[in-house]
């Protein structure tokens, strides 16, 4: 049965004027939807940088298997996660996610602080540059959220994300989802390419390619899934599709659930499933996610904001998200709790 596509606002944050107004719109969208299209005018992240990053992603996954295996993901959440190694929704999935991924942690002086496949070593600085662009955009969004929520001081969130204050769980992740024709073991009705989950960090920037279907969000009724078009109306002629921003669990904890951390998944949108006009899953799907995390030692207490104080952990914001109610001490403790739940083998083998 075809579901309606997700209703998500498109916001342009690239200008320098009307900062207060833009901040207000961003906060309202983060409260109401948790997902926001950030119009990509090319000012914050040039279209060529996005294209270059996708080329990089393809190179990483085409690297010889032995090179990828030598970089197998570790408990620090860095490295290569092979097909079906991660299970984002272990409570309902019979098998792991039909995807492979490569995670880069924070770079140090432009160098990756982890093993990388020799095939992509010549491009290390390009990956670092893309990660920098994403980091800066997240700082800007953190500032706007602080202004829009009237946090005192308004740069409260931004300060918590400054790298000079300590390391964080921030990850630049390249993803590859083969089409169903290449995953004969998958039952497209029952299996998923990425299980239902909310993101673990403060916010995520997601880059997708035109024409590639698959992402769905859980709507506020807690039951219906809505596909998220790559190119929403009005952005067809932009230099690059909008960057899809979503609020993660940490910004939700920090604001007592006022900002919504929305559950989402990636499916095989085969026959009979909802597809967005002009999108299909006949080709391999590639996406890039930048998971922005605060400094690991940051305590996740409610932020100093009257608006947050007056908000009493609204039940609606928690709907469909089993993690929304857990209280944990620091950003790092929260991250490890979540990784433990989705990398079953990694934690089983080594404990
Ligand atoms: O590939 C996508 O569209 C979404 C991926 C995602 O939700 C994630 O990696 O957390
Ligand atoms: Fe996600």
TrEMBL record:
It comes from the Eukaryota. GO terms for molecular function: metal ion binding; oxidoreductase activity. The keyword DNA damage does not apply. One of its GO terms (biological process) is small molecule biosynthetic process. Keywords: Iron, Metal-binding, Oxidoreductase. Residues 302-321 are annotated as: Disordered. Transmembrane segments: none annotated. Residues 304-315 have a biased composition (Basic and acidic residues). Residues 167-294 form the Fe2OG dioxygenase domain. Pfam families: 2OG-FeII_Oxy, DIOX_N. SUPFAM superfamilies: Clavaminate synthase-like. Signal peptide: none annotated. PROSITE patterns: FE2OG_OXY. Belongs to the iron/ascorbate-dependent oxidoreductase family. PANTHER family: OXIDOREDUCTASE, 2OG-FE II OXYGENASE FAMILY PROTEIN, UPF0676 PROTEIN C1494.01. This is Fe2OG dioxygenase domain-containing protein.
């Amino acid at each position: 049965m075809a579901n309606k596509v997700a209703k998500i606002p498109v916001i342009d944050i690239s200008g320098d004027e009307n900062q207060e107004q833009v901040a207000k719109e961003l906060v309202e969208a983060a409260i109401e939807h948790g997902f926001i299209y950030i119009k990509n005018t090319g000012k914050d992240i040039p279209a060529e940088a996005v294209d270059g990053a996708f080329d990089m992603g393809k190179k990483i996954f085409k690297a010889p298997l032995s090179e990828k295996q030598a970089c197998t993901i570790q408990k620090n959440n860095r490295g290569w996660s092979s097909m079906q190694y991660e299970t984002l929704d272990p409570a309902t999935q019979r098998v792991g996610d039909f995807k492979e991924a490569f995670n880069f942690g924070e770079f140090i002086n432009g160098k990756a602080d982890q093993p990388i496949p020799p095939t992509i070593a010549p491009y290390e600085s390009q990956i670092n540059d893309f990660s920098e662009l994403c980091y800066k955009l997240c700082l800007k969004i953190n500032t706007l959220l602080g202004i829009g929520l009237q946090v005192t001081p308004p740069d409260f969130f931004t300060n918590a994300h400054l790298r000079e204050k300590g390391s964080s769980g921030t990850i630049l992740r390249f993803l590859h989802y083969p089409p169903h024709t290449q995953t004969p073991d998958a039952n497209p009705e029952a299996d998923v390419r990425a299980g239902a989950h909310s993101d673990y960090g403060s916010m995520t920037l997601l880059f997708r390619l035109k024409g590639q279907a698959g992402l769905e969000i859980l709507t506020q009724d807690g039951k219906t899934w809505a596909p998220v078009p790559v190119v929403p109306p009005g952005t067809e002629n932009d230099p690059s599709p909008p960057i899809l921003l979503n609020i993660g669990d940490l910004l939700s904890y920090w604001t007592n659930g006022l900002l919504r951390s929305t559950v989402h998944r990636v499916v095989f949108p085969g026959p009979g499933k909802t597809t967005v006009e002009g999108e299909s899953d006949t080709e391999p799907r590639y996406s890039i996610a930048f998971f922005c995390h605060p400094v690991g030692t940051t305590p996740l207490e409610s932020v100093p904001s009257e608006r947050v104080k007056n908000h009493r952990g609204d039940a609606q914001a928690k709907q469909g998200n089993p993690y929304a109610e857990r209280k944990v001490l620091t950003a790092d403790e929260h991250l490890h709790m979540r990784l433990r739940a989705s990398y079953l083998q990694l934690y089983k083998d080594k404990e």
